[in-house]
Amino acid sequence: MTTPIWEGLSAEEHEAQYNPQRSVPDFEAARRRREPANAAAIAALKPETDIAFGAGPLHKLDLFRPPGQGPFPVHLFFHGGYWRAQDKRNFAFLAPWLVAQGVMVAVMNYDLCPAVTLDGTVASAIAGMEWVARNIAGHGGDPSRITMSGHSAGAHLVAAGLATDWRARGLGADMIKGALMISGIFDPAPAMRTSVNADIRLTPDISARHDYEALPPRCACPAWVMAGGDEPEHWIDQSVRYARHLARHGLKPGLLVTPRQHHFDILDQYMHPGSDVIHLLGRLVAPSGANRAGAARGSA
Question: Quick one: which of 203, 270, 262, 194 has its CA closest to 231?
């Protein structure tokens, strides 16, 4: 068995590598900088908010519709927060570019720790994906053109979607047509040694059930994995290893490390045409046949 790369790190080094807030002293600055754009997106796009996909208080999504007649391709976004924090209302800023391309955007909430364990968090995210696949047609979306992106813990949840047997749930194996995973943690094991575990309460068994570097992907869709060049090297390694895992299972994932971006300001790219994120989103939501994995400025 291969020794994990975090073995031998001191407690302080481990925290610096696997708790992104420790790597960016003013990690809230990026969110504050995006607040005006977030408010402007809500005012301009007037989303339908708090659409329920389940019975829980966080089983909600906000839906941003393009103008005109559907059915529209649909893009789901899952926020980060180390499975314990954040809310969909803070991520409206990512919708305007997609809506301008004629894409419907669903910004998702999901159950958070410590109210649940990671089992519950993942289950609620998968339930949200399934609800969209079954019900989005009634809101003007096209269930045959669903793509997803996620950041940090949200990238892990998108990876959970790729590892789900959708046929066992009565849906097509190709329900997810494309995925972008940004600054993700795909093997939760190192989080057990961080201060964050006081909230997320990982155990070896829970971690193993949601280790998407070990579980095979079941969706053979175009996939891209990216991280910021200013993120800790062990955090970047999670993206590298996950991309290689997808490649070993026959996918041809794109792998990209964007220079001069840390864990929190990398999300600014959703607001900037010409950025790496927008370039990759453009490929994800392109009409079928124009979307090709591995052609996104690099491959694993």
Answer: 262
pLDDT in tens, 91-133: 999 999 999 999 999 999 999 999 999 999 999 999 999 999 9
Q: What digits encode the pLDDT tens for the residues 194-230?
A: 999 999 999 999 999 999 999 999 999 999 999 999 9
The two tokens of residue 252 are 């041809």
